Amino acid sequence: MTSPQIEIQLIAAVVAIACAIPGVFLVLRKMALISDAISHSILPGIVLGFFITHDLNSPLLIVLAAITGVITVILVEAIQRTGLVKEDTAIGLVFPALFSIGVILIAKNANDVHLDVDAVLLGELAFAPFDRLLMGGVDMGPKSLWIMGSILLIIIALLLLFYKELKVSTFDIGLSSALGISPMIMHYGLMSVSSVTVVGAFDAVGAILVVALMIAPAATAYLLTSDLKKMLLLSVFFAIFSAIAGYWMANILDASISGSMTTMLGIVFLLVYLFAPQKGLIAVLYRQQQQRTEVSLLTFLLHLNNHSETEERHINHLQEHINWQKVRSKTVLNLALKNNMIEIDENIVSLTEKGKEFTDLALEYIITNKDEKIEPMKDDFFLFRG
Amino acid sequence: MFSLGFINIPVLAGKYMKNKKIAIQVDDLTVAYNYKPVLWDIDLHVPEGVLMAIVGPNGAGKSTLIKAILGILDPIAGSVCIYGKPYEKQRKLVAYVPQKGSVDWDFPTTALDVVMMGTYGQLGWIKRPGVKEKKASLEALEKVGMLAFKNRQISQLSGGQQQRVFLARALVQNAAIYFMDEPFQGVDATTEIAIINILKELRKAGKTVVVVHHDLQTVPEYFDWVTFLNVKKIATGPVKEIFNDDNLTKTYGINYKVAVNK
């Protein structure tokens, strides 16, 4: 690896982590779309800052853009509060308006400078190592690494300081407010941090793809864990993985780095969506299949429980009595046998002690809907897990 | 004459009010959503140590009243005092159980973690919960019979269990006043009894408990104090004295019997 290659991967990873952390809270607050709105509507802020400083990496530009981001959120909420339109409509109204102002400003005034619509939309990581930070003539490394690194450090510091506040205000606004942890402060704090992050990441990945960096790692992690801390760690892991893997994918395909990173994020999400052990598509389908079988089993056991007469319990007549397909009857019969819930004596099926006990418990659960009694059964049966 | 009048004052105020401090005092409270008032000019004095139901039809402003008392909503007029001071200064004296439906139960967290959130108010900003807070939370979970579920992800709990976790979270706040927004909504009979027993214990310990309640039939059995609310305050006082046809009709209109028998 050459040193620019290492630098690009480092920048990509830092950008991805910085986006992933606020992304977790945006996803949990069901505000993924807001990040889309912010990433577009900060454009006029960036352009204005650029006109003033003529430097895409100036701190003033970040501040102005972050302010535009917060203004976006305020506008969206103001339109929403009128009660005339819903939140998604409000977002759809605000950000194209602000974005288009930015586009017009660029087209009118910055045609021949280093700020064009393409770079704004997609960013260009490959050029990042060329813009160096020089201190007293000494090369300190790429400027964007310093900027994004500082933003990341601020994000991590804020997360560590306000983890508890972020958690409670995200989970329960009412309680948070009653406890004196102002949800309003947390909300605008998160919006400001998101805006700053988006501005910082803008240069590297552009307005469209930054949304993917914020949302995809969090959405992927959400499918894998039910613990907020683990969700944050997993998001960071997916962010780093996609950044590095995306870079090499771009390298091999000779394609856009930001495009490859986002594709990587998409692939990772798809894989997790399919194969996640609890919430994954395959696990869910398997569980539904199991539940169907278990319901059949229960129906079958209840039938045996309800009928003492032998003709109702003859192995060959079960099908007509419960009205099932042959295959299904066989599966259920085998399942019950395997679990020692029934015994077959001269083709007459009867419940064993275990089968009776199980049926009684299940019946009680169905009638009372009380969880305590069936707690030990939850490990063996999907049916009883909520 | 003067001394006689002085002695008689507590009697006149009703035997329940005798020597009792006012825990919650609401004066001229008006709350509006989009300039449409949902609570009109509410005056409410709740004495310390009562278990009070707030009853009224849908849209009567029951939840709104609680939220306005707790400063979650800004009233357009009026004031609220908790033991004689504004709520902001008395936060630590107050615990709140929002409606179960107001939060996302798919949130990645455990039962114990949710209960720990009750300690955040006492901790204040930035400080993290430690061993002491964890111990208190575990005790609260035990009190509501949910200790066995402490590490269960909250979406894996039944409706009644979720409500118990919420109650444990309020208990851990160790407050003087408890506000509960429909704690019996969507819970089974066992949980309902478990919850009301804990609420009665709280009252016995001298706490004040305010509950938004829907089931009129259980009001006399569960509560000793009641407030009838329908945008305006209809009546407030001891259940024995004011829980009658007259007030029910005023609150629910002529169809209140339907509400009772639902």
Please give a structural write-up.
The complex is a heterodimer of chains A (386) and B (262). The longest helix of chain A has 40 residues, at 183-222. In chain A, a hairpin with a 2-residue loop joins strand 1 (132-135) and strand 2. Helices cover 73% and strands 4% of the residues of chain A. In chain A, helix 1 (3-28) runs antiparallel to helix 10 (228-253) and helix 3 runs parallel beside helix 5. Chain A has 386 residues and is mainly α. Chain A has helices at residues 3-28, 32-41, 43-53, 59-81, 87-109, 117-122, 143-171, 173-179, 183-222, 228-253, 257-275, 281-306, 318-322, 326-338, 353-368; strands at residues 132-135, 138-142, 342-345, 348-351. Chain A has 2 domains: 3-277, ABC transporter involved in vitamin B12 uptake, BtuC; 282-381, Winged helix-like DNA-binding domain superfamily/Winged helix DNA-binding domain (Arc Repressor Mutant, subunit A). In chain A, the strands form 2 sheets. Chain A has a two-stranded antiparallel ribbon with strand order 1-2. A two-stranded antiparallel sheet of chain A has the order 3-4. Residues 1-15 of chain B have low confidence and may be disordered. Chain B has helices at 2-12, 62-69, 87-90, 111-116, 120-123, 131-143, 159-171, 189-204, 219-222, 239-242, 245-252, 256-261; strands at residues 22-33, 36-47, 51-55, 77-82, 94-97, 177-181, 208-212, 225-230, 232-238. The N and C termini of chain B lie far apart (52 Å). Chain B is globular. In chain B, the strands form 2 sheets. A 6-stranded mixed sheet of chain B has the order 5-6-7-3-8-9, sandwiched between helices. A 3-stranded antiparallel sheet of chain B has the order 2-1-4, covered by helices on one side. The longest helix of chain B has 16 residues, at 189-204. Chain B has 262 residues and is an alpha/beta fold. The interface between A and B is large, with 36 and 39 residues.
